[in-house]
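One-letter codes give the sequence; each number marks local geometry. A record appears below:


***
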Amino acid sequence: MTQDAMRVGRPAAASPGLLANRIAIRPGLLRFGLTAAKYLGLFQIARYVTRNGLRIICYHGFAVADEYRFRSRLFIRGELFRRRIEYLRRKRYPILPLGQAVQALGEGRLPPCATVVTMDDGWRGVYSVGLPLIREFRIPVTLYVSTYYIEHPMPVFPVALSYLFWRTTASKVDLPRRLGTFALDAQAEEAEAAAQELGTQLPPADRLCFLREVAEALGVAYDEIENHQLFRALDEPQLRELAEAGVDIQLHSHRHNWPLHDRETAEREISENRGFLERFVARPLEHFCYPSGIYGLHQGGWLAALGIRSATTIEPGLNFPDTSRFALRRLMDGHPVPDVEFEAEISGFMEIVRALRYGHLFSMLQRRFWSHRGGSGSSTQNNDQHQQIGQDISPAAGQQGSEFYDRLHAESNNPDTGAMYYPLLREVVSCTRAHGSRSILEVGCGNGFLAEMILREHSGSYRGFDFSPVAVRNASRRTGRHEILFCGDALDAGSYAGDYDTIVCTEVLEHIDADLDVVRLWRGGTWCVCSVPNFDYPSHVRFFHTSEAVTARYGQLIDIKCVVKVARPLIPDGRLTSYLRNLRWSRDDPSRLLGFLGIQTFDRLGGWFLFYGIRCLRDS
């Protein structure tokens, strides 16, 4: 088993919220817009609207040297943490212990704008830099601790190795142990991947020797790392002192390794983590943080059976009484986050922006203000429960040929199209990352918008195909990776040759008459992430009205774990003028107008049913 402990999870956005990544907007313009919103009083309004939402802030380690320049979100400087706590104190955000906050959230008795401070992993800088600040401000802090590198004292290998490649000024390296020679201007990622793969398979003592050998090969002085104790986890006396100082030590797995579907391994990770920490911690170990943000909602039952009361993710947002205790959201903070963006998140302004962008604003307000008046869920949802499944799949136009799609892809190869599908693609990437997909095959890559996002944010391998040569050419140009894209037919078994553990199939099944035959070609046991629309279009063979209809059609072939509704974006091009124009044009259509106002947007303006699960070994 590899000991890839404390590996860095999925890349977080440069902003703690939504706008920087979901709308093509320059950082300076973003900060200007947020500053304007702040001085117009919108942050204060948002704070009132979201006052019953629990804010959980996430930090990792504290920099003891120049690590903050290497990974500025993973290692923050002490002055940033001081500034944040002073801001929370000045603005009267009450900082509560995690356990107390989670209990109060469930009982509906949180103080307004309650806030929790958490730190992940258990880096040594939390003791040397963080503890004096925690004592000075007398604030409760929860520290989620992985224990493998406490048990085996040495620098955390994956992070330390990445630092060596970041620090080197060499243009060429001959890696030790016959890994090969690499030109770092073009092959740095390949070289690091080779070293990571070998190093994580070595026993701890040999891994440390290998780390020194790589440092020497790269021309980096390893003694500097040792002198500053860089990338070290806490040692046992430091862990004990943190616990005695009142820091709430909690669970984070032993090896920083969290499987999505292997319950036995997950339980072993918790058991070893808990067994180690119980030697130093007197209070109950009943709160957990998913390593690298990998989790599935089905794992809540696993954790509850182990006596765990809550689990935190790295999904952005606030937490309300209807938020799952095993999928608590957090606000990721660090040096890339300007003060105004931090204020936008902590005030709840970004929570409202997210709800508006995805068409959830009305349902969010309904849950926050009117849920106690009786009746949860929209009339549309209630109607869905009484409709016949057979009536929930609407036939549409006939299947189109390749010429149609060649023309369509030629006309839609522009940023506006990518922005229109952004919410769907974002959910797909999040799903593959949460599952831990290592090798993705995309069925119907189109113009490459999803391929570009996967290659940018996903650490595993990717291949994609489409039966439109124009689409494949556009995708190759967009990604710059023509060698991983090819022309293929979804109904041709040859298209699925090669190794993959995940199938991604969006904007495809609704266009094919024999959609079930496509799914039958997928290898049994493969993780499948698919989407189908709830709206008509000239090339759609069918579209769906309810989640139940989606499950009824594809559940015989895929063990569907979840069906998620993803609404079309309200402002796909990021231009307020476009949004206002849509409002004006919809003034004679009340239903469409309500959709643009964020009220039942999925049902009124359209969207996609995103569903995922495991391809059945045998068809039902």
Q: What stands out?
A: The chain has 29 helices and 20 strands. Confidence is low (pLDDT under 50) at residues 1-24, 371-391.
